[in-house]
Design brief:
Order of helices and strands: HEEHHHHHH
Helix content: over 70%
Shape: globular
Strand content: under 5%
Structural class: mainly alpha
Number of strands: 2
Radius of gyration: 18 Å
Strand order of the largest sheet: 1-2
Length: 222
């Protein structure tokens, strides 16, 4: 039984790695006009799904694997890009997966993703301050001037979009995996599940619309 469970977990993690890489290749959206290299990629949603299913360490492992694949295939930033990718994803998905494990509910997932967004923003501001002058050739003073108008809003928007989309697609995705026999079917259902799902769906929609409007305003389209 344990062998079958471990095989199923490894198979699903491999599938999530592949999906996360495809998400990077297929979708890259610049969010900050002044720094077009700051692109949104939806891979963290896939990696976070692995974290919710298997825990924060599994999410970190998927992040490292996908970042290594990126480095050897589509990335032009080498080891520095690998480090930044892993730091960004791990800072977001690991707190979210950990808090979801402690409070196994949509509210726990939501609070975890909020915490992950804030931690990711803090971590990436620090590491952009340290590393961007090295691989971009920017003076450190110029990087400091970009923290508030570029790095902070980019990471907040990225975390907000990931949070909203995860709330919207996690349940349908897990249901599909269970129907495909890639996961053990759920045995219990929360009595207030329908109402709570509606509330979280509305919350996710508000967050997503807000992020989209913020991006359009920064691009001068509104």
């Amino acid at each position: 039984m344990n062998m079958t469970k471990n095989t199923s977990k490894l198979t699903l993690m491999a599938m999530l790695c592949a999906l996360a890489f495809v998400a990077v290749v297929a979708i890259r959206i610049p969010l900050i006009p002044m720094l077009p290299f700051l692109e949104y990629e939806p891979k963290d949603i896939i990696i976070l799904t692995g974290g919710f299913l298997f825990g924060p360490m599994s999410a970190a492992l998927i992040s490292v694997i996908v970042s290594f694949i990126e480095m050897f295939t589509i990335s032009s930033t080498g080891i520095i890009g690998l480090i930044m990718n892993v730091l960004s994803t791990v800072a977001f998905v690991c707190p979210a997966a950990y808090l979801y494990k402690k409070q196994h509910s949509l509210l726990g997932a939501f609070l975890g993703m909020v915490a992950g967004t804030l931690l990711m923003t803090l971590v990436m501001v620090l590491w952009n301050y340290l590393i961007t002058p090295i691989y971009m050739g920017y003076p450190r003073e110029a990087v400091v001037k970009l923290i508030l108008p570029a790095f902070v809003p980019f990471n907040l928007l990225k975390g907000g979009i990931n949070t909203a989309l995860t709330l919207l697609i996690y349940k349908p995705l897990v249901t599909t995996l269970r129907k495909s026999n890639l996961m053990i079917p759920a045995t219990t259902v929360a009595p207030n599940k329908r109402n709570f799902n509606f509330g979280m769906t509305l919350t996710a929609a508000v967050i997503l619309i807000t992020c989209i409007l913020a991006v359009l305003v920064m691009k001068g389209m509104m």
